[in-house]
Design goal:
It comes from Actinomadura vinacea. Belongs to the HIBADH-related family. With 292 residues, the chain is α/β, with parallel strands linked by helices. The chain folds into 2 domains: 155 residues, NAD(P)-binding Rossmann-like Domain (Rossmann fold, 3-Layer(aba) Sandwich), CATH 3.40.50.720; 123 residues, N-(1-d-carboxylethyl)-l-norvaline Dehydrogenase, domain 2. It is built from 12 helices and 8 strands. An 8-stranded mixed beta sheet has the order 3-2-1-4-5-6-7-8, with helices on both faces. Helix 10 packs antiparallel against helix 11. The termini are far apart. The structure holds NADP nicotinamide-adenine-dinucleotide phosphate. The site of NADP nicotinamide-adenine-dinucleotide phosphate has 21 residues, from helix 1 and helix 4.
Length: 292
C-alpha cells in the first residue's frame, strides 16, 4: 500500500512532483493558489483539494514546492488548525535563517518541518541521478523516506533546518557561477568569430578535468589545501594569477563586452594579494572570502 501524499504548489516543479507520485501509485492530493493548475493533474488521477484545509487533511505527508517560504505562510496560514500531526516537506528556496524560523512556526502549530533542496530541474525529478538534500528531524524521514525517494535519492545532511538549504545554495552557486563564466567566455570568443559549438570541447574538458585526477584536478588540490590550511604558490603564485585576471578584464573591455564578472574576480584576487597572499597559491583566496 503506497502512502498518501499532498503536494502544495503546482509550478513546473510541484506539478512534476505530483505527476511523479501519481506514476508511483501514491494517492496524490494537490492544491495550488491558482486552482486551475490542478486540472491537468486531476486528469492523471490526482485529487484536487477544494481548500488548503482539505489538502492538509488528506495526507500526513505534505510536500510543498512554491517560489519561496512567504508563499507557504500565505497558503497554510489561513488553515493553521489543520497543521497538527502533519509532516511538511518544503522544497522551496529560502534563506537558511528563514527556514529555521519556519521550523519553529511549524512546531508551534503541532507540525514537523523537513526542509529540502532538490538538485534536479523538472525533467530530472524522479530520474536516475536526481537527489534532494534534506534537513530537520531525521525521524520524519525514517517514516516518509520511502515515499520521498520517488522524487530522487534522499540525502539527509543533519537536524539543523537551515542546513539542506545551505548545501543547496552552495551547489547552486557553483552551478550558476560556472555556467555564467562559460557564457562570458563564449561572448568573448564570439567577438573573434569563434562559435559556442567550437569552444564547447575545450570548456567541457576543463570542467571535467577540474573534478578528475591529474595536474588540473583543482577541486581535489584546493580541498586538500583548504583542509591543511596551507596554500603553496611556488609554481603558480596568486600574484601571477591576479595579473592574468586583470588581462581578462582588459580583453573583455577591448572586445566591447560586459566586464562586471571578470572585474569582480580580479578585485577578489587583488584583495587577497593586498592581504599578503601574493606568493601563496590560488587556494589562499578563501582567506579573503572568509574575511571580507
Ligand atoms: N524550476 C527548477 O528548475 C527548480 C529546480 C530546483 C529547485 N527549484 C525551486 O522549486 C521551487 C518551485 O519552483 P518552480 O520552478 O516550480 O516555480 P516558481 O515560479 O518558483 O513557483 C511557482 C509556485 O509558487 C506559487 N506561489 C508563488 N507565490 C505564491 C504565494 N504568495 N502564495 C501561494 N503560492 C504562491 C505559485 O502559485 P500560482 O500558480 O498561483 O502562481 C506556483 O505554485 C522554487 O523555490 C525554486 O527555487 C526550481
Amino acid at each position: 500500500m503506497t502512502a498518501n501524499v499532498t503536494v502544495v504548489g503546482l509550478g513546473p516543479m510541484g506539478a512534476t512532483m505530483a505527476e511523479t507520485f501519481l506514476a508511483s501509485k501514491h494517492p496524490t492530493t494537490v492544491w495550488n493558489r491558482t486552482a486551475s493548475k490542478a486540472d491537468p493533474l486531476v486528469a492523471k488521477g490526482a485529487t484536487k483539494a477544494a481548500t488548503i484545509a482539505d489538502a492538509l487533511a488528506a495526507s500526513e505527508l505534505v510536500v510543498i514546492s512554491q517560489i519561496d517560504y512567504q508563499a507557504m505562510y500565505d497558503s497554510l496560514g489561513p488553515a493553521v488548525d489543520a497543521l497538527k500531526g502533519r509532516v511538511l516537506v518544503n522544497l522551496s528556496s529560502g534563506s537558511p535563517e528563514e527556514l529555521r524560523k519556519a521550523s519553529e512556526w511549524a512546531s508551534e502549530h503541532g507540525a514537523v518541518l523537513v526542509t529540502g533542496g532538490i538538485m534536479a530541474p523538472p525533467p530530472g525529478i524522479g530520474k536516475p541521478g536526481s537527489y534532494v538534500f534534506y534537513s530537520g528531524p531525521e525521524s520524519a524521514l525514517d517514516c516518509h523516506g520511502e515515499t520521498l525517494k520517488v522524487l530522487g535519492d534522499v540525502t539527509y545532511v543533519g537536524d539543523d533546518p537551515g542546513l539542506a538549504m545551505l548545501y543547496y545554495q552552495a551547489q547552486l552557486f557553483l552551478f550558476w557561477s560556472t555556467l555564467s563564466s562559460y557564457m562570458h567566455s563564449v561572448a568573448l570568443l564570439e567577438t573573434a568569430g569563434v562559435s559556442a559549438r567550437d569552444f564547447l570541447p575545450f570548456a567541457a574538458r576543463l570542467v571535467r578535468e577540474l573534478a578528475e585526477e591529474g595536474p588540473m584536478a583543482f577541486l581535489h588540490i584546493l580541498t586538500d589545501e583548504i583542509e591543511a590550511g596551507d596554500f603553496p604558490g611556488d609554481l603558480n603564485s596568486l600574484k601571477m594569477q591576479a595579473v592574468g585576471a586583470a588581462h581578462v578584464v582588459e580583453a573583455s573591455r577591448d572586445a566591447g563586452i560586459d566586464t562586471a564578472y571578470p572585474a569582480a574576480l580580479r578585485d577578489l584576487f587583488e584583495r587577497a594579494v593586498a592581504a599578503g597572499h601574493g606568493a601563496d597559491g590560488l587556494g589562499s583566496v578563501i582567506e579573503a572570502l572568509r574575511k571580507p
